[in-house]
Amino acid sequence: MTSTILITGATAGIGAASARLFVHNGWRVIATGRRGDRLRALQDELGDALLPLELDMRDTESLLRLGELGGEWGEIDLLLNNAGLAPPTDALQDADYPKLETSIQTNVTGLVALTRSLLPGIIRRKGAVINLSSVAATYPYRGGAVYAGTKAFVRQFSLDLRCDLAGTGVRVTSIEPGMAETEFTLVRTGGDQAASDSLYAGVEPMTAEDIADTIWWIATLPPHLNINTIELMPTRQSFAGFTVSRTDQA
Fold first, then answer.
1. Known catalytic residue at 97
2. Do 134 and 148 meet the contact criterion of CB atoms below 8 Å apart?
3. Domains in the chain, please, with CATH?
4. Is the separation of the CB atoms in 136 and 87 below 8 Å?
5. What is the 3-state secondary structure (H, E, C) of 138-164?
6. Choice among 139, 141, 147, 200 that is catalytic
7. Tens-digit pLDDT profile for residues 55-64
8. Which pairs with CB-CB distance under 8 Å and at least 24 residues apart come from 143-147?
9. I need a surface site. Which of 21, 82, 100, 138 has the fewest CB within 10 A?
C-alpha cells in the first residue's frame, strides 16, 4: 500500500529535498507552497506521484479545508510541517512589525491550523507528524526573539501534541536543525546572496538533503518507536558564548 506525505514549504530547501526523497522511495507527496511555478517544476520532475497545491501558510481557511481532500490524496499518513521563515535580525525594538507578524502567522498560526485539520485522518491511519523547529528554540541570539520564539512554540507544541495523541498510535517529532545552507538566509535578508555566502563560508554546513535523510529515517522507523526531539548541527557549529555589556572604564 502506497503511503502519502503532505509537505509544507516544498518549493525549495528541506521541503523540496524531502519531496524528492519520498517520491523516489515510492510515496505519494502532496507539496504545498506559495510559489506555484516551483511546485509545477517539481511535479514535472517527479511526475504524477506529486500533487502540487499552491497556498500560503497565512491563509487559515485554505489550510483548514485541506482536511477535506478526497480520494487517495486524502489518505495522509505523514504531515511534515516544514514551512517557516524568519524576519530580519533587527533587535525587537527596531523591527518592522508586519515582518514579525508574517513569521508568527506562518510558523505558528498556520502550522496549528493545518495540523488540526489533518489530525482526524492521521489518527485513523495511525500516522505521524514531524515538525521543523530549530536550535534557535533552545539557544538565544541577538535579533532572534520572534523567530526563536516561534520555533520554541513548535518544539513545545510537538511535545504537548504527543501528550494529546497518547494511545492513538500517532507519532510526533520535533526536528531542530542548526546551520543548514538553504534559501533560509536569502529569504531572511531579502535576497542578499553575499550575506548568505558569508554566513556559511568555511562552516561546511548541513544541506537540505542531510535533513531530508533524517526525516526519512524518522518516518520509516518501526511504529512502536517515537523520536520525541532530535537536534542536529554541523560539526563546526557549537553553542554561543555569553554576551557581556561593560561600563565605560575611561
1. no
2. yes
3. 4-230 (3.40.50.720)
4. no
5. CCCCCCCHHHHHHHHHHHHHHHHHHHH
6. 147
7. 999 999 999 9
8. 143/88, 143/89, 143/90, 143/91, 144/86, 144/89, 145/92, 146/87, 146/92, 146/95, 146/100, 146/103, 146/104, 147/86, 147/87, 147/103, 147/107
9. 138
